[in-house]
Amino acid sequence: MDAKCPHNTEVHCGDCRMNSLCLPLALQTKEISQLDEIVQRGRPLQKDGHIYHAGEEFKSIFAVRSGSIKSYTVTNQGQEQVTGFHLPGEIFGMDGIGHNRYTNSALAMETAAVCEIPFSSLQELSIAIPSLQRHFFQLMSKEITNDQSLITLLSKNTAEERVATLLLSIANRNMRRKLSGTRFRLPMSRADIGNYLGLTVETVSRVFGRFQKQNLLLVDKKEIEILDFEKLQALAN
Amino acid sequence: MDAKCPHNTEVHCGDCRMNSLCLPLALQTKEISQLDEIVQRGRPLQKDGHIYHAGEEFKSIFAVRSGSIKSYTVTNQGQEQVTGFHLPGEIFGMDGIGHNRYTNSALAMETAAVCEIPFSSLQELSIAIPSLQRHFFQLMSKEITNDQSLITLLSKNTAEERVATLLLSIANRNMRRKLSGTRFRLPMSRADIGNYLGLTVETVSRVFGRFQKQNLLLVDKKEIEILDFEKLQALAN
DNA sequence: GACTTCAGATGACCTATGTCAATAACGTCG
DNA sequence: CGACGTTATTGACATAGGTCATCTGAAGTC
Q1: What distance in Å separates the CA atoms of residue B143 and residue B150, rounded to the nearest whole number?
Q2: Alpha-carbon distance A20 to B24, whole Å?
Q3: Tens digit of pLDDT for each residue in A27-65?
Q4: Do A148 and B147 touch (CB under 8 A)?
Q5: Is the N or the C terminus of chain B less surrounded, counting Cβ atoms within 10 Å?
Q6: Are β-strands B50-52 and B105-108 bridged in parallel, bridged antiparallel, or unpaired?
Q7: Which residues of A touch B123 (CB under 8 A)?
Q8: In sequence order, what are the residues at sequence separation of 6 or more whose Cβ sits closer than 8 angstroms to the Cβ of residue A211?
Q9: Which helix (H) or strand (E) holds B70?
Q10: Residues contacting A23, CB < 8 A, separation 6+
Q11: Chain B interface includes A25 (CB < 8 A)
């Protein structure tokens, strides 16, 4: 199936490079193939292509296969609020479960591919495979903890601390994928960073400037090199 | 059992005044009694008594039966961050699932009683009762959406908007419990409000002052009377 | 290859909220 | 009942970050 999809080289969860990130560790080979059957693979996306819009009926959660995804809501005053950045191996869309509608919109920040996991099938499978149920409870709980750290960040930290924290978060998530934790390309714009961190573009820009002057960072547009990981961690605390 | 607990007048979930809030609507009588068997009722708490501390092994989630509970984390710089206020009928403790440890601490802001629901039993029961599984997925998802609205509030709104939003949230939650939405007692201190909303005590105090001067509110210490619900909603937007 | 557009950087200035300090009101404990 | 600690209020002042305006360079695009 999906012969027209150029990204579709890895056809099964069992073969996917990301499976150690998005699947429960305890899953048996047999169970993986059960999960495999309900996953709709591929779904290639162009930059700025939407996966779903806020308000749409909730049907599936998604795993990032390649590229990067941004989740955001729109306030009733019409302002955008970025609620998350999702990198390969990460799951998103769980905000939709509560009211059977997505509360966020999700779009590709660059060319990307996602796996779609129909939630009703996942629920049924969770009854057959208890460790899968457990895994999804854990996944959602981690999302809660994540959101709560962001709350703390916004409520207690300065602009510099916020930016440092985001950079380290991306660095760590890259390392989990066996990529460099010190040299990488930011998939999002300065505006998205500012929006996510509750700052203006100007402030983000200035913080990058200061970090460069202090030789913590080397910034070339979206390319980042972290020169002093330790000091950055101290800042992020 | 638990003869020493003076709050223990309602002995079963089926009889509990809060059950329409903390149980899934679709649950059959038979299923309610199954759930009933795993719930450990009562647990009376004094003001400032802890239900659990951050870092402790996660065993159970909790439902508020009476009184009110505050969840908070402590940053590695030692500052407290209030992450939620829980009123009767509400569930808390789900942050612990992700890493098998509570990431928040929870304490009673006044004399309170909670029901303890051992998570392992709940997981097993969820396999037997699919609508219960669904209910818990929904509950956790709603927690995510809630946290995300707080993120938006902190990231985009002024002090007045934040305070107005919190007041309306409490008013609405009181109404869900068939209590007055316009006259109520705040269970938390100004410091807790400020901490939760990313503001200082002084700012919270000033906002209350301004709201009184504008005849939106009547404030007497912790007693609140909302005089102009509409205008407050317009502010909270 | 000039023209437009957009993302990012930088400077000057402004303001909402934080900080610090003083005071008042209340509860509690000897 | 008086003394003390805690919580809330209020004022004067400081500042981090927002706002607005300008400038630069890269990426399309006709």
Answers
A1: 11
A2: 34
A3: 778 888 888 888 887 778 999 999 999 999 999 999 999
A4: yes
A5: N
A6: antiparallel
A7: 130, 133-134, 137
A8: A160, A163, A164, A217, A219, A232
A9: strand B69-74
A10: A13, A32, A35, A135
A11: no
